[in-house]
Fold this protein.
Amino acid sequence: MVYLTRKAEFSAAHYYHNPAFSAEENRRLFGKCNNSHGHGHNYTLEVTVKGSVDPRSGFVVDLQQLKGVLQREVLDAMDHHFLNKEVPEFFNRVPTTENIAITIWQRLAPKLTQAQLHRVRVYETPDLFVDFYGEP
Amino acid sequence: MKAYLTRRYRFSAAHRLHSDQMSAAENAVVYGKCNNPHGHGHNYMLEVTVSGSVDGASGMVCNLADLDGFVEQEILERFDHQNLNTLPEFQRAVPTTENLCIAAYQILERGFRHAHLEKVRFEETMMNSFEYAGGAEPRR
Protein backbone atom coordinates (compact mmCIF):
# COMPACT_ATOMS: atom_id res chain seq x y z
CA MET A 1 0.00 0.00 0.00
CA VAL A 2 1.36 3.42 -0.97
CA TYR A 3 -0.09 6.74 0.18
CA LEU A 4 -0.10 9.78 -2.07
CA THR A 5 -0.93 13.30 -0.88
CA ARG A 6 -1.91 16.18 -3.13
CA LYS A 7 -2.12 19.75 -1.86
CA ALA A 8 -4.38 22.53 -3.06
CA GLU A 9 -5.15 26.02 -1.85
CA PHE A 10 -8.35 28.01 -1.91
CA SER A 11 -9.58 31.24 -0.37
CA ALA A 12 -13.14 31.62 0.79
CA ALA A 13 -15.44 33.61 3.03
CA HIS A 14 -17.69 32.17 5.73
CA TYR A 15 -19.36 32.87 9.03
CA TYR A 16 -20.69 30.67 11.80
CA HIS A 17 -24.39 30.81 12.53
CA ASN A 18 -27.04 28.28 13.50
CA PRO A 19 -30.60 29.51 12.86
CA ALA A 20 -31.86 27.19 15.63
CA PHE A 21 -30.08 29.40 18.20
CA SER A 22 -30.97 32.91 19.34
CA ALA A 23 -28.80 35.82 18.16
CA GLU A 24 -27.30 35.99 21.63
CA GLU A 25 -26.51 32.26 21.76
CA ASN A 26 -24.90 32.45 18.33
CA ARG A 27 -22.66 35.31 19.49
CA ARG A 28 -21.71 33.48 22.67
CA LEU A 29 -20.97 30.17 20.94
CA PHE A 30 -19.26 31.44 17.81
CA GLY A 31 -17.74 34.75 18.99
CA LYS A 32 -16.10 36.83 16.26
CA CYS A 33 -16.87 34.12 13.69
CA ASN A 34 -20.59 34.99 13.99
CA ASN A 35 -20.25 38.32 12.09
CA SER A 36 -22.90 37.84 9.39
CA HIS A 37 -20.98 39.87 6.83
CA GLY A 38 -18.45 37.05 6.83
CA HIS A 39 -14.69 36.83 7.07
CA GLY A 40 -12.22 34.78 5.10
CA HIS A 41 -9.30 32.38 5.18
CA ASN A 42 -6.63 31.00 2.91
CA TYR A 43 -7.36 27.31 3.22
CA THR A 44 -4.86 24.59 2.42
CA LEU A 45 -6.29 21.22 1.48
CA GLU A 46 -4.34 17.98 1.62
CA VAL A 47 -5.96 14.95 0.07
CA THR A 48 -4.35 11.57 0.75
CA VAL A 49 -5.27 8.52 -1.31
CA LYS A 50 -3.98 4.99 -0.90
CA GLY A 51 -3.64 1.99 -3.14
CA SER A 52 -1.26 -0.51 -4.58
CA VAL A 53 1.15 0.62 -7.25
CA ASP A 54 0.01 -0.29 -10.75
CA PRO A 55 2.84 -2.40 -12.22
CA ARG A 56 2.45 -0.89 -15.71
CA SER A 57 2.24 2.82 -14.86
CA GLY A 58 4.06 2.80 -11.51
CA PHE A 59 1.26 5.02 -10.17
CA VAL A 60 -1.09 4.69 -7.20
CA VAL A 61 -3.32 7.14 -9.01
CA ASP A 62 -3.09 9.19 -12.18
CA LEU A 63 -2.25 12.59 -10.73
CA GLN A 64 -3.88 14.35 -13.68
CA GLN A 65 -7.16 12.63 -12.87
CA LEU A 66 -6.84 13.47 -9.15
CA LYS A 67 -6.07 17.11 -9.95
CA GLY A 68 -9.07 17.27 -12.24
CA VAL A 69 -11.41 15.90 -9.59
CA LEU A 70 -10.03 18.34 -6.99
CA GLN A 71 -10.47 21.23 -9.39
CA ARG A 72 -14.07 20.37 -10.32
CA GLU A 73 -15.38 19.16 -6.96
CA VAL A 74 -13.59 21.52 -4.58
CA LEU A 75 -11.78 24.48 -6.09
CA ASP A 76 -14.42 25.47 -8.67
CA ALA A 77 -17.08 25.30 -5.96
CA MET A 78 -15.21 26.92 -3.06
CA ASP A 79 -12.31 29.07 -4.26
CA HIS A 80 -13.19 32.77 -4.01
CA HIS A 81 -16.74 31.96 -2.93
CA PHE A 82 -18.83 32.66 0.15
CA LEU A 83 -19.33 29.19 1.62
CA ASN A 84 -22.60 29.88 3.47
CA LYS A 85 -24.23 31.42 0.41
CA GLU A 86 -22.80 29.55 -2.54
CA VAL A 87 -22.02 25.97 -1.51
CA PRO A 88 -25.26 23.98 -1.06
CA GLU A 89 -23.87 21.76 1.74
CA PHE A 90 -23.46 24.87 3.89
CA PHE A 91 -26.96 26.24 3.41
CA ASN A 92 -27.88 24.32 6.56
CA ARG A 93 -24.55 23.11 7.93
CA VAL A 94 -22.17 25.49 9.73
CA PRO A 95 -19.01 25.83 7.56
CA THR A 96 -16.54 25.03 10.33
CA THR A 97 -13.22 23.47 9.38
CA GLU A 98 -14.64 20.14 10.60
CA ASN A 99 -17.63 20.40 8.24
CA ILE A 100 -15.49 21.64 5.35
CA ALA A 101 -13.30 18.53 5.71
CA ILE A 102 -16.38 16.25 5.84
CA THR A 103 -17.97 17.99 2.84
CA ILE A 104 -14.80 17.70 0.77
CA TRP A 105 -14.59 13.99 1.65
CA GLN A 106 -18.21 13.47 0.60
CA ARG A 107 -17.60 15.26 -2.71
CA LEU A 108 -14.37 13.39 -3.50
CA ALA A 109 -15.04 9.84 -2.33
CA PRO A 110 -17.54 8.87 -5.08
CA LYS A 111 -15.38 10.44 -7.81
CA LEU A 112 -12.12 8.71 -7.01
CA THR A 113 -12.16 5.44 -8.88
CA GLN A 114 -8.48 4.46 -9.10
CA ALA A 115 -7.36 4.81 -5.49
CA GLN A 116 -9.13 4.86 -2.17
CA LEU A 117 -9.53 8.10 -0.24
CA HIS A 118 -7.57 7.86 3.02
CA ARG A 119 -7.63 11.30 4.60
CA VAL A 120 -8.84 14.83 3.97
CA ARG A 121 -6.90 17.46 5.89
CA VAL A 122 -8.02 21.10 5.84
CA TYR A 123 -5.88 23.88 7.26
CA GLU A 124 -7.88 26.98 8.14
CA THR A 125 -4.65 28.70 9.20
CA PRO A 126 -1.12 27.28 9.51
CA ASP A 127 -1.90 26.69 13.22
CA LEU A 128 -5.29 24.98 12.92
CA PHE A 129 -6.30 21.96 10.89
CA VAL A 130 -8.85 19.15 10.85
CA ASP A 131 -8.43 15.56 9.64
CA PHE A 132 -11.31 13.42 8.43
CA TYR A 133 -10.94 9.73 7.58
CA GLY A 134 -14.55 9.00 6.61
CA GLU A 135 -15.32 7.59 10.05
CA PRO A 136 -18.99 7.56 11.06
CA MET B 1 -19.02 11.80 12.18
CA LYS B 2 -15.64 11.62 13.83
CA ALA B 3 -13.02 14.26 13.06
CA TYR B 4 -9.60 15.15 14.42
CA LEU B 5 -8.77 18.75 15.30
CA THR B 6 -5.16 19.89 15.60
CA ARG B 7 -4.00 23.19 17.02
CA ARG B 8 -0.45 24.56 17.15
CA TYR B 9 1.01 26.64 19.97
CA ARG B 10 4.44 28.10 20.60
CA PHE B 11 6.53 28.79 23.66
CA SER B 12 10.16 29.41 24.53
CA ALA B 13 12.05 27.83 27.41
CA ALA B 14 15.51 27.02 28.68
CA HIS B 15 16.77 23.61 29.72
CA ARG B 16 19.85 21.55 30.38
CA LEU B 17 20.07 17.83 29.68
CA HIS B 18 21.76 16.15 32.61
CA SER B 19 21.02 12.87 34.34
CA ASP B 20 21.86 12.27 38.00
CA GLN B 21 22.12 8.60 37.15
CA MET B 22 25.24 9.15 35.05
CA SER B 23 28.74 10.35 35.84
CA ALA B 24 29.88 13.80 34.69
CA ALA B 25 31.90 12.18 31.94
CA GLU B 26 28.97 10.04 30.79
CA ASN B 27 26.63 13.07 30.81
CA ALA B 28 29.11 14.97 28.66
CA VAL B 29 29.28 12.11 26.16
CA VAL B 30 25.53 11.38 26.01
CA TYR B 31 24.21 14.93 25.94
CA GLY B 32 27.12 16.78 24.31
CA LYS B 33 26.44 20.52 23.96
CA CYS B 34 23.06 20.07 25.67
CA ASN B 35 24.90 19.25 28.91
CA ASN B 36 26.32 22.82 29.25
CA PRO B 37 25.74 23.58 32.97
CA HIS B 38 24.44 27.06 32.21
CA GLY B 39 21.64 25.70 30.02
CA HIS B 40 20.34 26.80 26.62
CA GLY B 41 16.90 27.37 25.09
CA HIS B 42 14.49 26.58 22.28
CA ASN B 43 11.40 27.93 20.59
CA TYR B 44 9.12 24.96 21.02
CA MET B 45 6.14 24.23 18.80
CA LEU B 46 3.42 22.22 20.54
CA GLU B 47 0.72 20.52 18.49
CA VAL B 48 -2.34 19.15 20.28
CA THR B 49 -4.73 16.78 18.48
CA VAL B 50 -8.18 16.05 19.89
CA SER B 51 -10.98 14.01 18.37
CA GLY B 52 -14.69 13.49 18.71
CA SER B 53 -17.88 13.43 16.74
CA VAL B 54 -18.72 16.72 15.06
CA ASP B 55 -21.62 18.31 16.94
CA GLY B 56 -24.61 18.77 14.65
CA ALA B 57 -25.54 22.17 16.05
CA SER B 58 -22.12 23.82 16.34
CA GLY B 59 -20.28 21.94 13.59
CA MET B 60 -17.35 21.46 15.97
CA VAL B 61 -15.38 18.67 17.65
CA CYS B 62 -14.95 21.10 20.53
CA ASN B 63 -15.02 24.84 20.90
CA LEU B 64 -11.57 26.16 20.03
CA ALA B 65 -11.89 28.76 22.78
CA ASP B 66 -12.04 25.93 25.35
CA LEU B 67 -8.94 24.21 23.97
CA ASP B 68 -6.99 27.48 23.62
CA GLY B 69 -8.01 28.54 27.14
CA PHE B 70 -6.94 25.25 28.67
CA VAL B 71 -3.59 25.10 26.87
CA GLU B 72 -2.89 28.76 27.62
CA GLN B 73 -3.61 28.37 31.32
CA GLU B 74 -2.26 24.89 32.02
CA ILE B 75 0.65 24.50 29.61
CA LEU B 76 1.87 27.81 28.18
CA GLU B 77 1.61 29.63 31.53
CA ARG B 78 3.60 26.81 33.10
CA PHE B 79 6.36 26.42 30.50
CA ASP B 80 6.72 29.67 28.52
CA HIS B 81 9.85 31.65 29.40
CA GLN B 82 10.77 29.24 32.18
CA ASN B 83 13.80 27.11 32.84
CA LEU B 84 12.33 23.61 32.51
CA ASN B 85 14.87 22.11 34.95
CA THR B 86 13.39 24.22 37.77
CA LEU B 87 9.82 22.88 37.30
CA PRO B 88 8.31 20.06 39.39
CA GLU B 89 7.78 17.87 36.27
CA PHE B 90 11.53 17.75 35.70
CA GLN B 91 12.90 17.23 39.18
CA ARG B 92 13.24 13.51 38.44
CA ALA B 93 12.90 13.39 34.66
CA VAL B 94 15.46 14.92 32.27
CA PRO B 95 13.74 17.75 30.31
CA THR B 96 14.23 16.14 26.92
CA THR B 97 11.51 16.83 24.36
CA GLU B 98 10.42 13.20 24.82
CA ASN B 99 9.67 13.91 28.48
CA LEU B 100 8.15 17.31 27.64
CA CYS B 101 5.78 15.50 25.26
CA ILE B 102 4.72 13.09 28.01
CA ALA B 103 4.31 15.93 30.55
CA ALA B 104 2.08 17.96 28.21
CA TYR B 105 0.05 14.85 27.31
CA GLN B 106 -0.54 14.06 30.98
CA ILE B 107 -1.65 17.63 31.77
CA LEU B 108 -4.20 17.47 28.93
CA GLU B 109 -5.30 13.94 29.80
CA ARG B 110 -5.91 14.90 33.44
CA GLY B 111 -7.78 18.14 32.85
CA PHE B 112 -9.18 18.60 29.34
CA ARG B 113 -12.76 17.36 29.19
CA HIS B 114 -14.20 18.90 26.00
CA ALA B 115 -12.91 16.29 23.51
CA HIS B 116 -10.85 13.10 23.42
CA LEU B 117 -7.08 13.66 23.54
CA GLU B 118 -5.44 11.89 20.60
CA LYS B 119 -1.83 12.98 20.72
CA VAL B 120 0.72 15.64 21.47
CA ARG B 121 3.49 16.52 19.05
CA PHE B 122 6.49 18.75 19.72
CA GLU B 123 9.03 20.36 17.46
CA GLU B 124 12.12 21.33 19.43
CA THR B 125 13.77 22.76 16.33
CA MET B 126 12.80 22.62 12.66
CA MET B 127 14.93 19.48 12.42
CA ASN B 128 13.39 17.26 15.06
CA SER B 129 9.93 16.39 16.31
CA PHE B 130 8.39 14.06 18.88
CA GLU B 131 4.94 12.51 19.24
CA TYR B 132 3.17 10.85 22.15
CA ALA B 133 -0.31 9.33 22.11
CA GLY B 134 -0.40 7.72 25.55
CA GLY B 135 -0.09 3.98 24.99
CA ALA B 136 -1.55 4.13 21.49
CA GLU B 137 -0.04 4.43 18.03
CA PRO B 138 -0.67 7.95 16.67
CA ARG B 139 -3.22 7.96 13.83
CA ARG B 140 -1.64 8.70 10.43
Observations:
- The beta strands of chain A are 2-14, 39-51, 81-82, 116-125, 128-132.
